[in-house]
Fold this protein.
Amino acid sequence: MESEYAIETQDLTKVYISQWKRRQVRAIDGVSLRVRPGAIFGLLGPNGAGKTTFVKTLLSAVRPTRGNALIFGRDASEPEARRPIGYLPENHRFPTYFTGAGMLDFYAALSGIEASRRKKLIPEQLELVGLGEWATMRIGKYSKGMLQRLGLAQALIHSPTILILDEPTDGVDPVGRRQIREILGRFEERGVTIFVNSHLLAEVETLCREVAILDKGKVALSGKMQDLTAGKGYRLTVAQPPEALTEELRGRASSMAVRDGLVDFQFSSRELANGAVDLLRAERCEIEALAPTTSTLEEVFVRTVQK
Amino acid sequence: MVTLALIRDTFREALARKIFWVLFGLSTLLIVFFLFLLRIDIVAGATATVSLFGRQGPPDANTDRLVRGVYGGIATFLYTWGMFLAVFASAGLVPSVLEPGRIELLLSKPLSRTHILLGRFAGNVLVVLLNSAYLVLGVWTILGVKTGIWSPGFLIAIATTTFIFAVLLAVVVLIGVTLESAAAATMITVALMIISPILAQTSLMMRLLSSEWSRNLWRVLYYALPKVYELGKMTLDAIQSRTFAGFAPIWSSALFGAVMLSAALAIFARRDF
């Protein structure tokens, strides 16, 4: 069955019942999300919001109490529905008896890739993530960042059309992060759907075009990144304004920050920003910059989960 | 291809656990012992001299009896220490695959949970089958060449050892998927091995037990649990070319193993990870 969505959940609910059935924990509660093919989608939420449970239901590692999770229109509990998925788990524990090449060979075989194709793909994938020279080394010797890159190679080796990445840059140094972003960029160009679960908001902001914020098991906010972070206000940067004027503007601005002899005033509307410019020019103060600003994802996130 | 990958993975993990090398090393030691240290001189079909570590022992009038005695000893070794080591080594192989961070990745692949668990089960059985075959075939070949006696009865030890291991492994798998504890799996399985010769004394216990209730409980336990002891005895009987009572220990043990494995598969299929 073809579907217009790569990932679709309908009223997805998971209630964990404690061993003696005295306590119920609603990990996710009626989550309905749709991810279009080719989208880069970020799932955010504070600790315990249900992000991991949500991802696990997409992989059928967790059985939903109610609702369903569909991958290209097929129920995620069907093994064939998971064929298009490449998955990088959070806190992965790859068996240390594998070499890098051995691990890729194993997981590629489980994804149904023939031995002859695996032989060709494994060196390519290791090169792609910068581990070409480590192919025959046991992964017990790999650093956390290297394991993360190997995990990514494992998720990519069978050319998936959906990538589900749980904290993909966790433990990776800045150079490695950039490399991972570049790799994901290439897969985005190929039309691969990328679903990222991360607590690194800046990372998600850079990478994703759409986001959903889960809070207490429910979707608190979802939409396109540009819509969620747009329409914040204006930032006015001034060089050493007089103290009295600084105090005056501080009262009108929503926030103020001092850095290297410059003062940044944040105004919530164009009128307030223009009024501040008039005051500064009247006092013959130097204006360094005036620019419209958007909300950061962090601000959107904090506002959403603190409601 | 997928099944083969799962079996190969179990092999890799088994080899990474040193205890499988210990089992292999013990088997090799026994083979080397028979290859170099035990010398048997046969004159006119009977043992003229037997020398061990270069020292001559009393000749046995019947070489065939000697060879069958050795086979019986090897089979007993396989049944006791070999089985214990195999269970001990295998107990961690199921919980390890259920570790968080590993199981989710396996479950994300396009294969059923039944396939994952059966692949691991088959790989484990195959490891023990190869180890048993290595020891039994090695000793059988050496003694056959040295004595000229090729007793095929000994080869049945490969099948019975692997069979009873598979039955016990079903228990290991069930405990593994429910409790995720290698220690619990080992304790319960070894307890089944220990209780088997005790339960086998059914006719004696029927006379000793005073109440009908306790006799019925004993019968239920006897018929329900795997017949490790009886299968061992059947193997020895086959080696000694003796007749055995029947095949009930085989099918009842197989039934027990099938029930345990089915329960493990059902629980594994419904679990959240």
Observations:
- The interface with chain A takes residues 1-2, 4-6, 8-9, 12-13, 15-16, 96, 99-112, 270, 272-273 of chain B (CB under 8 Å).
- Strands of chain B lie at 38-43, 46-52, 55-57.
- The longest helix of chain B spans residues 113-147.
